[in-house]
């Protein structure tokens, strides 16, 4: 099968287009012919080697972290899917590889594709929607009437998180650039901070939750908008001891993560705020709930551009500019 992979970790390196063996189908797996895959900042970070300590992949590695496609074969124990089903998924982190023509995944990580989305639209959803769901619903337990600040509202996670937070009944503030104010307001944001004009920490106060996807400065300034008892949840780091335990990291890596997050955890604790790092995980059941919201019209994808499969490197370059509104997708088939 045709695929794009890395042979070694190289910052800003190009993915290699090649022929790879078809994936092995296990008893609980579905084999999916990939029609579209989305391109994520995570792909660039894996390529650059930023996650090689916490995600120890065996190289060469086919990149790609979410997809939409059609089931072509199922393992002996599979009961939920059959050949011909249109599905979408974020594969488990140790079985990524959606920049290819086929992938095998555990059926527990897969969901039926929303009927009202194209393959390209569906492929844009799994990773960012599961991230938003796991942060807002599972970790923050966001409630009606609470206030949440979602940073980078025009990005992949931000565009979905704004919609999900509004569906949950929260008051939503977001940060974005001047060019994207109309976009995030159209998604439901109640307060929009144009970071080119205003400092969010001087405008917002008494928030219950902050979802951070930006750097250290933004993370620390976010403490100033939270009320005591609030939750600061970051998907961009630094990783904390709880994540190290969940990830099954060794003692040395647990120590490193403890040290990396010591500063923000200490500052949070002083202000009576809870800090946590979240790295999303594959979950077909949660994705099924997201499907219901999409089909009901509560969530809609935001796709900036669709690239042809052979232009994956150009798509990755575009994602890294940070200028994409919503998601970038490649049409595989």
From TrEMBL:
Xref: InterPro entries: ADH-like_N, ER, GroES-like_sf, NAD(P)-bd_dom_sf, Quin_OxRdtase/zeta-crystal_CS, YIM1/Zinc_Alcohol_DH_Fams
Origin: domain of life: Bacteria
Domain Enoyl reductase (ER) as annotated: residue spans: 13-330
Keywords: Oxidoreductase
Gene Ontology molecular function terms on file: oxidoreductase activity; zinc ion binding
Pfam family for this entry, one: ADH_zinc_N_2
KW Hydrolase (keyword) present: no
PANTHER family linked to this entry: ALCOHOL DEHYDROGENASE RELATED, RETICULON-4-INTERACTING PROTEIN 1, MITOCHONDRIAL
The protein's name in its UniProt record: NADPH:quinone oxidoreductase
């Amino acid at each position: 099968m045709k695929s794009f992979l890395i042979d070694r970790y190289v910052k800003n390196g190009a993915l290699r287009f090649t022929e790879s063996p078809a994936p092995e189908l296990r008893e609980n797996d579905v084999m999916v012919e990939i029609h579209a895959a989305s391109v994520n900042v995570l792909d660039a970070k894996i390529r650059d080697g930023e996650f090689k300590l916490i995600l120890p992949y065996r190289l060469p590695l086919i990149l790609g972290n979410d997809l939409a496609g059609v089931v072509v074969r199922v393992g002996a124990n599979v009961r939920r899917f059959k050949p011909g089903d249109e599905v979408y998924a974020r594969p488990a982190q140790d079985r990524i590889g959606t920049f290819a023509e086929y992938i095998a995944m555990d059926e527990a990580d897969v969901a039926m594709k929303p009927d009202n989305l194209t393959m390209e639209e569906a492929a844009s959803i799994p990773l960012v929607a599961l991230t938003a769901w796991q942060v807002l619903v599972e970790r923050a337990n966001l409630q009606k009437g609470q206030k949440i600040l979602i940073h980078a509202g025009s990005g992949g996670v931000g565009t979905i998180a704004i919609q999900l937070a509004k569906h949950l009944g929260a008051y939503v503030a977001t940060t974005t650039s001047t060019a994207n104010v109309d976009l995030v307001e159209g998604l439901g944001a109640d307060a929009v901070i144009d970071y080119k004009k205003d400092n969010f920490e001087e405008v917002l106060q008494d928030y219950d939750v902050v979802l951070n996807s930006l750097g250290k400065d933004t993370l620390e300034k976010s403490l100033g908008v939270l009320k005591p008892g609030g939750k600061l949840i970051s998907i961009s780091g630094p990783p904390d001891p709880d994540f190290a335990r969940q990830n099954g990291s060794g003692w040395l890596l647990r120590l490193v993560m403890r040290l990396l997050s010591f500063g923000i955890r200490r500052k949070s604790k002083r202000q009576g705020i809870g800090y946590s790092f979240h790295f999303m995980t594959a979950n077909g059941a949660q994705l099924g709930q997201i499907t219901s919201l999409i089909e009901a019209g509560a969530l809609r994808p935001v796709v900036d551009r669709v690239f042809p499969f052979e232009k994956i490197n150009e798509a990755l370059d575009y994602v890294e500019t940070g200028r994409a509104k919503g998601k970038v997708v490649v049409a595989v088939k």
